[in-house]
Structure formats: C-alpha cells, structure tokens
Amino acid sequence: MSQTMSFFNGRITIHPDLCNGKPTIRGKRITVQSILEYLAAGDNREDILRQYPTLEPEDIDACLAFAAKLMDHQYTLHTTT
Predict the structure, then answer these.
(1) CATH assignment of the domain containing 48
(2) pLDDT digits (tens, 9 = 90+) for 35-63
(3) What b/e sequence results for 36-48 when a residue is b if at least 16 CB atoms lie within 10 Å of its CB, and e otherwise?
(4) Is the pLDDT of residue 81 over 80?
(5) Residue 76 is assigned to a structural domain of this protein
(6) Sign (positive/negative) of CA torsion 5, 6, 7, 12?
(7) From CA 48, how far away is CA 22, in angstroms rounded?
(8) Strand partners, 4
(9) Residue 69 lies in a domain
(10) Average pLDDT value for the chain
(11) Distance of alpha carbon 13 from the chain centroid
(12) Distance CA 53, CA 19 (A)
C-alpha cells in the first residue's frame, strides 16, 4: 500500500504513484518543481495562477517554503573518479 506524505498543512504532498513521486501541490499533477521553474524564469504569481486556475496564492508560498526547508539541510559533495 502506498503512503502519501504531506507538508505545510497538506499543500505539498508526495505520493509514489503521482508524478513519479515528486512533490506536488495538494495531490494535483502540478509539481513543486514546475512552479519553482516558472518563478525562476521570471513568471510572476499572477501569471502562474492564470495558467493554473486551480492553484491558490498559498500554494505558491508553500512551494517556496518547501524549497527553503530543503536548503536547510547540510549537503556533502563527493567527486567521482
């Protein structure tokens, strides 16, 4: 049985059978990565909300908070030979 993980009051969900297990917004087929890429490309919130009418402004906030939380971890780089 697959388990769904939920973050930020259910705004960010991870289910192994949805979008290859990538974090999505409220179980929709909209990944956190997609929203972050739109923001990185210069799209503003209004553009994103217009393109995805089922999203709410709080969903975008949750994507940014989720990404910031991931950056709170310590990472170690390994070189390959």
Answers:
(1) 1.10.10.10
(2) 999 999 999 999 999 999 999 999 999 99
(3) eebbeeeeeeeeb
(4) no
(5) no
(6) positive
(7) 19
(8) none
(9) no
(10) 93
(11) 8
(12) 19
SS (H, E, C) the chain: CCCCEEECCCCEEECCCCHHHCCEECCCCCEHHHHHHHHHCCCCHHHHHHHCCCCCHHHHHHHHHHHHHHCCCCCCCCCCC
Q: Please state the domain count of the chain.
A: 1
Residue 34 inside a domain? The answer is yes
Q: What is the pTM of this model?
A: 0.85
Confidence of residue 75 (pLDDT cuts 50, 70, 90): confident
Residues of the chain with pLDDT > 90: what percent?
A: 79
Whether 48 and 35 have beta carbons less than 8 Å apart is answered as: yes
Query: Domain limits at 26?
Result: 5-61
